[in-house]
């Protein structure tokens, strides 16, 4: 027996709403109809997908696995419908790229101009998300490609990773720290006011590695911020300092509002790469973007 796509849609509704009754309201069906559909799905799969409690439902391991695959099916159907509609207007896509803010900013700023010159008509969505969220969005096919800090995750056959660029880290300071020279040791700065990333992702792991390799303890007097814009604004208008890749602050450095201070004794660069599902054949526009970026960079 094969899975009925209608029962898969109702299963996703239950996952989203958290209860059978909520899913029934969302899908404009009776509660018994949804219950029957879920029971049918469980019979086909010969497993229990969730348990019921006072708060609603709790997915089993099988339910968690099915939810990811069901979301991928739903994403592919939506993408297929949109792709056909765009083809009628001679527009490529849709291409959906997710990633962490700094990696997206660096990569898209460097490559999108040239890519759009070769592919002048396409639809692109760019979504900023934390590293772990981005990986789950790849698994559910909600995004085609991810642009993330690379080289910090264990080898995983689930994904394909293509490094595309690297950029040195510097201590970034504003006018309030003019006393700092052109080069510093991190061990001498740990008692200063810092702004550092909050999310535990590849970018934060690279920054932590800088302190470890410098035999410096992590700062305690710190503002945790995952916003690149907020981080730069705080450093620009206060005595706080941060660590960022040079390219992320190149505009401010050229304008003189921020300054990059070299980290002594460390030759460590931030690496950014493309990430996608190994099992997936990429849509033509996504494959074209990968090919363009790889052919126009020297990681």
From TrEMBL:
<dbReference type="InterPro" id="IPR050950">
    <property type="entry name" value="HTH-type_LysR_regulators"/>
</dbReference>
<keyword id="KW-0805">Transcription regulation</keyword>
<comment type="similarity">
    <text>Belongs to the LysR transcriptional regulatory family.</text>
</comment>
<dbReference type="GO" id="GO:0003700">
    <property type="term" value="F:DNA-binding transcription factor activity"/>
</dbReference>
<dbReference type="GO" id="GO:0003677">
    <property type="term" value="F:DNA binding"/>
</dbReference>
<dbReference type="InterPro" id="IPR036390">
    <property type="entry name" value="WH_DNA-bd_sf"/>
</dbReference>
<dbReference type="InterPro" id="IPR000847">
    <property type="entry name" value="LysR_HTH_N"/>
</dbReference>
<dbReference type="Pfam" id="PF00126">
    <property type="entry name" value="HTH_1"/>
</dbReference>
<protein>
    <submittedName>
        <fullName>LysR family transcriptional regulator, regulator of abg operon</fullName>
    </submittedName>
</protein>
<feature type="domain" description="HTH lysR-type">
    <location>
        <begin position="3"/>
        <end position="60"/>
    </location>
</feature>
<keyword id="KW-0804">Transcription</keyword>
<dbReference type="InterPro" id="IPR036388">
    <property type="entry name" value="WH-like_DNA-bd_sf"/>
</dbReference>
<dbReference type="GO" id="GO:0005829">
    <property type="term" value="C:cytosol"/>
</dbReference>
<keyword id="KW-0238">DNA-binding</keyword>
<dbReference type="Pfam" id="PF03466">
    <property type="entry name" value="LysR_substrate"/>
</dbReference>
<dbReference type="InterPro" id="IPR005119">
    <property type="entry name" value="LysR_subst-bd"/>
</dbReference>
């Amino acid at each position: 027996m094969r899975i009925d796509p209608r029962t898969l849609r109702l299963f996703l509704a239950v996952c989203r709403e958290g209860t059978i009754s909520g899913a029934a309201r969302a899908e404009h069906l009776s509660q018994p109809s949804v219950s029957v559909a879920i029971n049918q799905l469980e019979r086909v799969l010969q497993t229990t997908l969730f348990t019921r409690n006072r708060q609603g439902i709790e997915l089993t391991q099988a339910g968690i696995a099915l939810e990811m695959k069901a979301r991928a099916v739903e994403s592919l159907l939506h993408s297929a419908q949109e792709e056909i509609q765009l083809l009628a207007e001679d527009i490529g896509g849709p291409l959906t790229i997710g990633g962490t803010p700094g990696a997206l900013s660096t990569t898209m700023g460097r490559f999108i101009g040239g890519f759009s010159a070769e592919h002048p008509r396409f639809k692109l969505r760019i979504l900023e998300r934390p590293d772990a969220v981005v990986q789950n969005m790849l698994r559910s096919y909600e995004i085609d490609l991810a642009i993330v800090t690379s080289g910090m995750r264990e080898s995983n056959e689930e994904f394909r990773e293509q490094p595309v660029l690297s950029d040195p880290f510097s201590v970034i300071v504003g006018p309030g720290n003019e006393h700092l020279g052109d080069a510093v040791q991190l061990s001498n700065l740990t008692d200063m006011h810092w702004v550092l990333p909050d999310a535990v992702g590849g970018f934060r792991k690279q920054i932590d590695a800088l302190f470890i390799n410098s035999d410096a303890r992590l700062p305690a007097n710190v503002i945790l911020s995952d916003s690149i814009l907020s981080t730069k604004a705080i450093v620009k208008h206060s005595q706080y300092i941060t660590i960022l890749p040079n390219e992320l602050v190149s505009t401010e450095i050229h304008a003189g509002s921020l300054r990059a201070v070299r980290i002594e004794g460390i030759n460590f660069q931030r690496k950014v790469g493309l990430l996608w599902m190994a099992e997936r054949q990429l849509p033509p526009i996504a494959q074209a973007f990968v090919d363009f970026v790889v052919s126009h960079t020297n990681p």
